[in-house]
Amino acid sequence: xxxxxxxxxxxxxxxxxxxxxxxxxxxxxxxxxxxxxxxxxxxxxxxxxxxxxxxxxxxxxxxxxxxxxxxxxxxxxxxxxxxxxxxxxxxxxxxxxxxxxxxxxxxxxxxxxxxxxxxxxxxxxxxxxxxxxxxxxxxxxxxxxxxxxxxxxxxxxxxxxxxxxxxxxxxxxxxxxxxxxxxxxxxxxxxxxxxxxxxxxxxxxxxxxxxxxxxxxxxxxxxxxxxxxxxxxxxxxxxxxxxxxxxxxxxxxxxxxxxxxxxxxxxxxxxxxxxxxxxxxxxxxxxxxxxxxxxxxxxxxxxxxxxxxxxxxxxxxxxxxxxxxxxxxxxxx
Amino acid sequence: xxxxxxxxxxxxxxxxxxxxxxxxxxxxxxxxxxxxxxxxxxxxxxxxxxxxxxxxxxxxxxxxxxxxxxxxxxxxxxxxxxxxxxxxxxxxxxxxxxxxxxxxxxxxxxxxxxxxxxxxxxxxxxxxxxxxxxxxxxxxxxxxxxxxxxxxxxxxxxxxxxxxxxxxxxxxxxxxxxxxxxxxxxxxxxxxxxxxxxxxxxxxxxxxxxxxxxxxxxxxxxxxxxxxxxxxxxxxxxxxxxxxxxxxxxxxxxxxxxxxxxxxxxxxxxxxxxxxxxxxxxxxxxxxxxxxxxxxxxxxxxxxxxxxxxxxxxxxxxxxxxxxxxxxxxxxxxxxxxxxxxxxxxxxxxxxxxxxxxxxxxxxxxxxxxxxxxxxxxxxxxxxxxxxxxxxxxxxxxxxxxxxxxxxxxxxxxxxxxxxxxxxxxxxxxxxxxxxxxxxxxxxxxxxxxxxxxxxxxxxxxxxxxxxxxx
Lengths: 333, 471
Description:
The complex is a heterodimer of chains A (about 325) and B (about 475). Chain A is mainly alpha-helical and about 325 residues long. Chain A has 14 helices and 4 strands. Chain A has helices at about 5-30, 40-50, 55-70, 70-80, 85-105, 110-135, 155-180, 185-215, 215-225, 225-230, 235-250, 255-275, 285-290, 295-320; strands at about 140, 145, 280, 285. In chain A, a hairpin with a 2-residue loop joins strand 1 and strand 2. In chain A, helix 7 runs antiparallel to helix 8 (about 185-215). In chain A, about 55% of the residues are buried. Chain B is mainly alpha-helical and about 475 residues long. In chain B, a hairpin with a 5-residue loop joins strand 1 (about 160) and strand 2. Chain B is globular, with a radius of gyration of 24 Å. Chains A and B meet through helix 2, helix 3, helix 4, helix 5 and strand 2 of A and helix 2, helix 3, helix 4 and helix 13 of B.
C-alpha cells in the first residue's frame, strides 16, 4: 500500500509552494506600490495581475484546507499557536483583496484604497513570514493540544523571517514587472529587482545560519557526514541562482529574472524540507502522527489526482490568455 | 458581567458574525452567476442587445460581490483552526476532505475562469467567453454542494465511527456526503439563493421602471425576476416543508424550538406568535391554532409531538431566537409568493409594467431575500446548539485552548474591519445599482482607463463590433 501521509505531505507542501510563488508576486506588487509614484504606473501594475490574483489566492485556501483535511492534528496545533499572525494575515488579505475592486469603483478615495492595498500586502507578507519563522522554531505541545501562550510566536528569529519574506515577495513582484512591462516602468522594475535580489539572498544566508543554531538536530541533518554530500549542493545552487539573477537583469532579459526568482524560492523550500522532514509540527509531531485516517487520505487523493491536473491546465490557460507586455493605460480590451 | 464573556461565547460570536457577513455574498453570487449565464446565453441565441446590456450591468455588481465573498470566505476557512481547534482535530478527518473537494472542484473553477469572464471577451472570443461564464456558474453550485454537505453532516452525522484518540473517522463516504438532511438542505439553499438574486434583480428593475417604464433592459430584469417569484417561491415553500419534516425526524429538539413547544403531547397547537421563555419553560402570550402543529408536522391532528421538556435543560437550543428567526423566514417566503401571484395577475391583464404599486412592492421586497437567508441560517445553526456535531460533540468541547482576550481582540478588529470594508462594498454596489441600465451608462466612460479590476464593460464585450455584425 502507498504511504498516504508521505504523499500528502508532499502535495500540501507543493500547494503551499505554488501559493507562495503565485500570490508572492502579486503581494510583492503591493509592497512595491509606494515606489510606483504615478497613478499610471500603479494602474499598469494592478492591471497586470487583476485577472489572475483570485486564482493565486485560492492556493492559500487549498494549503490551509488541505492541511485541515489530511493532517487535522497539525492544523489544530499550529493554528492556535499562530493565532495572531494568521489573523493579521487575514486582515491584510481582506484589505488588499477588496482594494482591487474598490480603487476603481471609487476614484474619490483612491488614495485610501492604494494605502489599503500596500498596507494590506505588507501586513499579509510580514505575517506569513512570521508564521513561517514561528513554525520552524517550533511550538509547545501537550498531548493533542497547543500548550503555549498567544505571544510565543514573537521572537527575533520570526521577525527576521518576516522581513525576509517581504524582501522575497518584493523580488518576485519586481521581476514580474520586469517581465510584464516596458519603458520607464520596466527600467524601474530592474532597479528594484537588483536591490530586492541582493536583500533576498542575504536574508537566505542569515536565516540558514540562524536555523542551524535553533536545534542541534538541524545541525546534524545538514552537516554530519555523509548527509552533507546531499545537502551541500543546496547552498551552492542558491548562490548560483543569485548570480544568474544579476546577470539576467544586466542583460535586460524579460522573463528569465522572474524564473530565477522562482528558483530561489523553490531552493529555499527544498532546504526547509530537508531541515524539517519528517516533522509537520517541527521536532514534535511527525507527518504519520498527525495524519488523518487512510480512509480520509485516500478519498481526497482520488479526487485530487483527477482534479489537480485539470486545475493546473486551466490556470495555465488563464495565464496564457493574458500573456505579453502591458502598456501604460492599456488594459485587456 | 466580565465572567459572562468567556472564550466560548466570544468565539461563537466571532463565528456567527463572520459567517453572517459571508453568507450574504454566496447567497447572492450563486444566483447571480446562473443569471449571468442565462443572460449571456439569451444574448448569444437571440442577438438581442438588451440582454447584453443587462449582462454587463450585473457583471460589474457580480465582480464586487464576488470579491467580498472570496475574502470573507478565506477568513472562515482559517477560523476552524484558530478558534475551534479541538473541533478541527476531531471532525477534521470527516469534514476536511469535503472542504478539500470544495476548494478543488469549486474555488479553483470560479477563480480560474473569473478573470476570463471579466476581462477576456476580446482575447478568447464569444464562445469561449460563454464557457468561462458557465464554468463560474457551475463553480458556485459545486461550492454550494460541498459546503452544504459539510453543514448537513454536522446536523445529521452518519457514516462515521470513533477511533482510539476520539476522532470521527469516516467509514462510508457515501453516507457522509449524502447524509439524511443533505438533499433537503441543498435544494432549500440553492432555491433561496436563486430567489434572493431574483428579488434583488427585480427590485433594481422595478426601481428603474418607476423612473422610465419603457427601459428595455429594466423590463427584462423585472419580468424575469417575477417569473422566478411566481414559480420558484411556491416550490421553495414546498421544499421548506419537506425540509422541516426531515428536521423533525432527525433533530426534533430544533423543531420544538422552532415551534415554541415545551410540552410533549397530541393535538398540539400551532403557535403563530408568542414569547418563548426558557426559564419558565413555556411560551407566553401565545396566539394559537388548536391541533394545527400536529396536522402540519405529522399530517394527523392527533399526532404526538415532542416538546423541549423531553430533553435536559443543557441540551436545548436557545428557544426564542430560533422561534423568531423561523417566523421571519416563513413570513418573507409567503410575501414572496404573494408578489409572484400578484405579478401573474398583472401579466394576465397586460399591465405588468404599468402598475406603480406592484413596482414599488418589488423595490421594497428587493433586499428581503437576504433577510430570509440570514433568518433561515439562524434557525438551522442556533437550532443545532449546544452541539457542533449534533448530539455528539458539544460546542463547549470544540474550542481552541486560547485565552479570552485574544478572541475578544480579534472579534473587535473583525467588527471594525468588516464594517469599513463591507460597508464600502455595499455602498459601491448600491451606486452601481442606481445607474440606469442602458448602453450609455453601462458602457465605458471615455477619457479614463476604465479597466476596473473585473468591472469594465468594454472588457467583457465590445459593443461596436457586435452592432456591425448584427447589421
